[in-house]
Amino acid sequence: MKLIDTHCDALLKLQLTKRLHMVNQTDLLSYQHDPKLDTNLERLKQGKVAAQFYAIFVEPDLPDNEKWQHALEQIDFFYNDVLPSPGMVHIREWNQLHDLKEGEIGAVLTLEGADAFGNDLTKLRTLYRLGVKSVGLTWNNANLCADGVGEPRGGGLTLLGKDVVKLNNEHRVFTDVSHLSIKGFWDVMDLADYPLASHSNARALCDHVRNLYDEQITAMFQNNGLIHVVFNPPFIKEDGTTTISDLIKHIDHMCALGGVKQIGFGSDFDGIGQFVEGLNHAGEYQNLINELMKHYKEEEVRGFAYENFLNHLPQ
């Protein structure tokens, strides 16, 4: 069964490897088949991934005057390493996801944290032009748009952050609430036409600051938002070996809150160092699909895999 994955960090991994190569001549990564990449082309095809979202992520502790350059470097890898791979299709308009042919993989560019553009909305508009289709205002830290989940202050959106959400609405771009502070989350609920949690789980099952409380999950579903479960073990289970069954419990919980038609997958592959048993990379995605088929109707599993997302595209 084909599927859509709304979060991976392959661009950051490609960038960091290139920068390391420039210092000590270590090997560069080949996007098509390098086993160091969880989401290389070969593995995406093995896992039947029909669309992969690629995050631009700028480390928050970088000097401000270097952040835009780091974002551009990652975008350069998207254009020069990911897109030239056989069968890759750059998704610039949402309707292209409906038109993908057998064997093609849609490649979607996203932004994880506003650090890349600071308070320069010209840079944000440039990112839209380059193809960014989802914007998360923060990572775990605070920035000029909002506080992230790791900021003790717990503030909401600034005036700039609210302007960014409004621009996302105008450009038919998702506003991603994964990593946002709780107050920031509720501010987004008031403003966003297209809310998305690209990689978040249920806090009722695993009390991690990156997960969503039931009230947040319910609000997302009531606001026509999507929640894509993440495969990072610390967000699934507090200790011990993490299995696919443990991950499915988060899907069960969200379904019980009314989200059967608004749940999907956001693996966080290439951004995590621990793995669910049987979900070590994108090539093993069908293990999750096969296990879900034991618990849910086929039409529901198709929803989780790709149809829910296609049914909630920005209009």
Automatic annotation (TrEMBL):
* Lineage of the organism: Bacteria, Bacillati, Bacillota, Bacilli, Bacillales
Q: Which Pfam families match?
A: Peptidase_M19 (PF01244)
What is the protein name for this chain? Membrane dipeptidase
Instruction: Kindly give the InterPro entries that the UniProt entry links to this protein.
Output: Metal_Hydrolase (IPR032466), Pept_M19 (IPR008257)
Instruction: Spell out the molecular function terms from Gene Ontology.
Output: metallodipeptidase activity
Protein's organism: Radiobacillus deserti
In the record, biological process GO terms are: proteolysis
